Amino acid sequence: MLIDFGKIENTAIKEFKGGKNITNIRMFVDSNNKIMSGKLESDSSIGLHTHQTNSEIIYILSGKGRVLFDGEYEELTAGSCHYCPMGHSHSLINNSDSDLVFFAVVPEHNIK
Amino acid sequence: MLIDFGKIENTAIKEFKGGKNITNIRMFVDSNNKIMSGKLESDSSIGLHTHQTNSEIIYILSGKGRVLFDGEYEELTAGSCHYCPMGHSHSLINNSDSDLVFFAVVPEHNIK
To answer: Is B10:B25 a contact under the CB 8 Å cutoff?
Structure first.
């Protein structure tokens, strides 16, 4: 099946997961996966959170930023792939002057 | 953690899953996810296969092609996102004159 993000309403979330300013998300959800097209605005972040039953894979489409992953910063640019395995925590940060645009998947791993 | 596909060796697979010609894959694997950077060459395909315990999410980075999903064709271009939920089958086809470049995740959903 095709997921047409252009037909999924954008949600502008303020201070997502305790982060800063605005995260824009278009999200498809079923019981196994969250599949997202995201745009983190300049000087915005998704707050630090732990993936308990799932993981997250983020592919950067454009812009620059960084993740705080298990206490260390990792720099991101177009083509970067960040992986937060199950049980780990991360925060996505746009400390640049332009949008950070990404594609992300949050798969559930403990479905019986 | 960062997955640097530039540091992962490319594997050129002939007739991948019974498909046609050449699929190029750089893959990170752990027990929960396969995370891939792929390039399907012109006139190549990944053969029809079913995702029994996992799903697959494919994001098209450049090029054109199509998937055969549950018996129907879906057209792909840059920015397209194809989702094959667990229990379904698909085939990825490059019927164009240039490479089909994609990012893909195969998450496992039945880990105890």
So the answer is: yes
Are the C-beta atoms of B84 and B90 separated by less than 8 Å?
A: yes
Biggest CA–CA distance in chain B, Å, is 44
Q: What ipTM, to 2 d.p.? A: 0.95
User: What's the average pLDDT block by block, 10 residues per block, for chain A (112 residues)?
Assistant: 97 96 97 98 97 97 97 97 97 98 96 58
Q: Name the CA radius of gyration of chain B, rounded.
A: 13
Q: Spell out which residues of chain A touch residue B112, defining contact as CB-CB under 8 Å.
A: 110
The size of chain B, in residues, is: 112
Best mutation target, B59, B92, B110, to test chain A (most A CBs within 10 A): B59
DSSP secondary structure string for all residues of B16-78: GGG-SSEEEEEEEE-SSEEEEEEEEPTTEEEEEEE-SSB-EEEEEEES-EEEEETTEEEEE-T
Whether B110 sits inside 8 A of A108 (CB atoms) is no
Partners of residue A110 in chain B, C-beta under 8 Å:
111-112
Q: What is the pTM assigned to this prediction?
A: 0.96
CA B55 and chain centroid, separation: 11
Is residue A105 a contact partner of residue B32, using CB atoms and an 8 Å limit? no
